[in-house]
Automatic annotation (TrEMBL):
The chain crosses the membrane at residues 12-40, 60-84. It is found in: Cell membrane. Keywords: Cell membrane, Membrane, Transmembrane, Transmembrane helix. GO terms for molecular function: monoatomic cation transmembrane transporter activity. Belongs to the CPA3 antiporters (TC 2.A.63) subunit E family. It is a multi-pass membrane protein. It comes from the Bacteria. This is Cation:proton antiporter. The keyword Transmembrane helix applies. The keyword Cell membrane applies. InterPro entries: Cation_antiport_E.
Amino acid sequence: MSKFIPAPWLSLFLLVFWLLLQNSITPGLIVLGAVFALLIPLYTNRARDFRLTLHRPLKALQYIVLLIIDIILSNFNIAAIILLPQRKVKPALIEYPLDITGEIPTTILASTISLTPGTITAEVSRDGRSLLIHGLNVQDPEAMIEQIKNRYERRLKEIFQC
């Protein structure tokens, strides 16, 4: 049974959440929701194998708050670029050398970069030692690297002790 339903509580939650989002209960929606509720945990089952240890949970909370603030500020910067077309945009691809180790911290850093408007993580190197980042408006690539190292990567090293 656990092979076909690896996370029964998650499946039940997904089904109920699906039906709440639909705002109605019909046989078709129940069947479709049940299919999603079974397939999503099966598809994501491998991700639950990773054990995550937060060595500094309060720092993790601070990181989330910092990220939310940075997302809001970056949205204003992107809006200014769009609304003020006289501003010079200087896109760039940057190879960012990683100091952190581990799949989860690297994934969190790559996601953080992609969540912040104006930047996106395009690729993680095969050896896992660098990220390829596209920046919409990069005046100084070295300054961008230092900003990411000081603002995000340093905090992730503290949170995960990596």
